[in-house]
Amino acid sequence: MSDSDLSSKYVLQTAGFDARFPNTNQTRHCFQNYTDYFKCVAAKGDDFAPCKQFKRAYNSLCPSQYISLTIGKWDDQRENGTFPASLEP
Questions:
Q1: Neighbours of 52 (CB within 10 A)
Q2: Which residues cross the membrane (predicted)?
Q3: I need a labelling partner for 30 at 20 to 30 A (CA). Which of 10, 15, 16, 65 fits?
């Protein structure tokens, strides 16, 4: 497959600039996008396309090791009702 075939098949995106987090450690930005995603899903459902932007953002901003360790912990906390932030829309 040539490079042009690959570039037309896949679109690479990352999270855009967020004025709430200029020139800072992206941990808070990662956490905020994670909570925004689940708030959006609670309000609009899994199939609502704009919610997926939050998921792409936290997957892009959070380091891969952070995703496997911390986000796994957050998922467990959400399921147990002990997550430290409100996920109500």
A1: 14
A2: none
A3: 10
> Residue 62 corresponds to which tokens in the numbers above?
């959070």
**pTM of the model as a whole:** 0.70
Q: Tell me the two tokens of residue 59.
A: 């997957």
On whether the CB atoms of residues 81 and 70 are closer than 8 A, the answer is no
**Each residue of 37-78: pLDDT tens digit?**
999 999 999 889 999 999 988 888 887 777 777 888 989 999
**What's the rounded Cα separation, in Å, for the pair 5 and 76?**
40
| Region of 62 on the Ramachandran plot (φ > 0 left; ψ -120 to 50 alpha; else beta) | beta
Which pLDDT score, from 0 to 100, does residue 3 have?
A: 55
Residues 17, 48: Cα–Cα separation, whole Å? 22
Instruction: Round to whole Å and give the CA distance between 51 and 70.
Output: 21
* C-alpha to C-alpha distance for 11 and 65, rounded to whole angstroms: 24
